[in-house]
Amino acid sequence: MQILEGKSIRLRALEPTDLKLLYKWENDSTIWEVSHTLKPFSIFILKQYLESSHLDIFETKQLRLVIELIETNTPIGLIDIFDFDPFHQRAGIGILINDTENKNKGFASEALQILCNYAFSILQVHQLYCNITASNEVSLRLFTKQGFEIIGNKKDWIRSKNGWMDEYSLQKINPANP
């Protein structure tokens, strides 16, 4: 089995053919609050991003992978490593399963487990972290089930249309390199 492949899904590199999909997902304003996006992305900008996605994570400090169903080769989401810091051996993680029909089927959990294994064994990171609003119970459950621990609460950290929200900081230490 490949390191970026699980039972139901694989994580694969971005392809030029993903441009329309990225455009659709990045410009979905219903997820902007979670992704801290304030404006839409143009096709031009996303095309430039795709053209540079082949660069090494040690150079760009980020890696975006497509979550794809193995059985049908259908892309269902994205998973990111960002703020990669090779000196301190840490990185942030973000994940998106886009369509409702693919949620609550274990795909996000499988993708997160695969990415954690990759980051710990291949990139040799010491710790991974994420930031999740206190009201996002689904994401909190996803990350804590994968061994992430809540290490802090930032009060009134995120401004939303419904007022201020707290944001939790979570981290997972590499079990093979404590």
TrEMBL record:
Q: Which UniProt keywords apply?
A: Transferase
Tell me where on the tree of life, at the top rank, the source sits. Answer: Bacteria
Q: Which Pfam families match?
A: Acetyltransf_3
Domain N-acetyltransferase, first and last residues per copy? 9-175
Q: InterPro entries per the record? A: Acyl_CoA_acyltransferase, GNAT_dom
What are this entry's molecular-function GO terms? Answer: acyltransferase activity, transferring groups other than amino-acyl groups
User: What is the designated name of this protein?
Assistant: GNAT family N-acetyltransferase
Q: Which organism is it from?
A: Labilibaculum euxinus
